[in-house]
């Protein structure tokens, strides 16, 4: 089980993960702010690149998401029941949080050529490492918790909705990886936004499951 009581630790983890999920979806503010980023072809890293207007908005949101995710995972590891799958999931979520904070602190530099022929210009910068670690961390966490949800029959928030979010995110990731090896334009901005949205929704599903604080049905 994720947790077996509704004590302060449970509520803290549930709320922290939920706020992290909402903060991680702050990229949608690009449609409300006077920005000129093409959502079809631009990467989200461009929103908080060095010198970009409103960089502080997206950088702050990522920092909040990372700090809360890491704190929630640390509390869960210390206070929640431990099993191989859930421990793996919480450790991976902790890594996601740390990498997301680093992602915000090491922004994309000189993004004037981000829309050029190179599909992934970020890969030539340190920002790529932190982004890769963040995505890998939450992917491992999602796989671990999804497997645990089916094995121990958690509620639908994580077993069904969470699994759907994981599947959508994985499909978007495959889209990006395959397109990286092809010539032409494959709307990678859309793919990345789907990927990040799926990650945010999965965090919300995890928060709902923790908030339920009910034992698994054997």
Protein topology:
Blueprint (H helix, E strand, L loop, with lengths): L7 H17 L30 H25 L4 H22 L21 H26 L3 H24 L8 H25 L6
List keywords for this structure.
single chain, about 220 residues, mainly alpha, globular, disordered C terminus
Assign a percent range to the helix content. Answer: 55-70%
What order do the helices and strands follow? HHHHHH
Look at the structure and give the mean pLDDT.
Answer: 85
Rounded Rg:
17 Å
Q: What structural class results from the helix and strand content?
A: mainly alpha
**Unreliable stretches covering 5 or more consecutive residues:** 111-122, 214-218
How many domains is the backbone divided into?
Answer: 1
Biggest sheet features: none
Q: Regarding quaternary structure, how should these chains be classified?
A: single chain
CA(first)-CA(last) distance? 11 Å
Discrete helix count: 6
Fraction of residues in β-strands:
under 5%
Q: Concise description?
A:
With 218 residues, this protein is mostly helical.
Could you walk me through the main structural features you see in this protein, from its secondary elements to its overall organization?
- The chain has 218 residues and is mainly α.
- The chain has one domain.
- It is built from 6 helices and no strands.
- α1 runs antiparallel to α2 and α1 packs antiparallel against α6.
- The radius of gyration is 17 Å and the shape is globular.
